[in-house]
Amino acid sequence: MSTEDPQVGQISTDGSLRWDGSAWTPLARSQREPTSWTQPLRRIVAAYLLLATLLDVVTNAVVSSVSTLEAALRSTNPDLPADQVHSQATVAYAASWVFVVVVAAIYVAAAVGSLRGWRWAFWVSLVVLALRSIGVVTSGLALASSTTRTPAWASAMDLALAVVAVALLVWLVIAAARFGPWAMRRSGGRLPAPR
Questions:
Q1: Which of these, 34, 61, 118, 191, could form a disulfide with 113 (CB 3.0-4.6 Å)?
Q2: Phi, psi at 4, each rounded to 5°
Q3: Residue 155, CA distances (Å) to 59, 68, 177 in order
């Protein structure tokens, strides 16, 4: 490799081997090293996902009920029989909880993956943050509208989380462009030039 004695941890000129003190050992193909951004990015994204999960569950529990859904159905279709209104509201209520539980499971899995630095969790978090960022428009419109059935406090909290999602999305994109997923840079530096 080199006529000089390599230092422990030194990477070969081709970037495929690392000196362990006694021999050159192959590097893992996708080995990455953390940067100063890695841990804060992972922790903040995980905290955001858990907070968003909590907000979604609480909002659904407080805002959604069979009686509110029945009232909404009656106002849009006053000719529906009472038993049909009740059965549709019950199905819609159950569906809303199934949706919230599935989304919560995805968020919690992505939060755990974020803390562990799993690469798939980076991409899932990126998609989640992009989707949550749409809330800047939708929650803003809901707050501005006088006809919405969503309470103002729920729309305001969604708007605040959407603004944070935009900031985190920008940070993730910059980190990925600058270093790679979870701000982890590729190892595989070069040997220092001989003196």
A1: 118
A2: -85, 160
A3: 10, 17, 32
If DSSP codes are grouped into helix, strand and coil, which group holds residue 18?
strand
Other Cβ atoms less than 10 A from the Cβ of 134: the count is: 12
Cα separation, 160 vs 169, in Å, equals: 14
Q: Which one, of 173, 162, 158, 167, lies nearest residue 122 by Cα?
A: 173
- Distance, in Å, from the CA atom of 171 to the CA atom of 105, rounded to the nearest integer, reads 24
Per-residue pLDDT tens digits for 27-40: 766 677 888 999 99
**Dist. CA 89–CA 68, nearest whole Å:** 8
Q: Name which of 154, 162, 105, 178 is nearest 129 in CA terms.
A: 162
Q: What three-state secondary structure class fits 64?
A: coil
State the pTM of this model: 0.76
What are the residue ranges spanned by the domains of the chain? 35-64+102-184
